[in-house]
Write a structure and sequence with these properties.
single chain, four-stranded mixed β-sheet, globular, Endonuclease_DUF559_bact, Restrct_endonuc-II-like
Length: 124
């Protein structure tokens, strides 16, 4: 399965660069997700349309964004990005760097709760 066939040239090298330069909160959350929700496949810096999702789980149609200082005063851009991703069928969860670094367990619990809510809703 080739996921990037319709992506512009340079997408894969850019995703690789973003992964290599990922900030510590992103890396910490990804490790936590892989340890606590390891039955799911978590992708890091995966392209979705013109954007790169910080953390993506295709099977759950879930994108997790870790917002650092660069997101301050960019609420409109973040809303527009989230709207695009929702239009592509993804749910978007956003956490601040501060939350991830100081309350990782709470962030992981919020993700798990979101996933449980989805499964309950789909079973009904």
């Amino acid at each position: 399965m080739r996921l990037y066939a319709k992506q512009p040239v340079g997408t894969v090298p850019r995703a690789r660069q973003l992964r290599q330069e990922a900030p510590e909160p992103e890396r910490r959350l990804l490790r936590g997700l892989r340890e606590s929700l390891g039955y799911l496949k978590w992708r890091h810096q995966a392209p979705v349309g013109p954007f790169y999702a910080d953390i993506l789980c295709f099977s759950e149609q879930l994108i997790i964004e870790v917002d650092g200082d660069t997101h301050v005063r960019k609420e409109l851009q973040d809303e527009s990005r989230s709207a695009f991703l929702a239009g592509e069928g993804f749910r978007v969860l956003r956490f601040s760097n501060e939350d991830v670094m100081h309350n990782l367990e709470g962030v992981l619990q919020a993700v798990a709760t979101t996933l449980q809510g989805t499964r309950k809703g789909s079973a009904a």
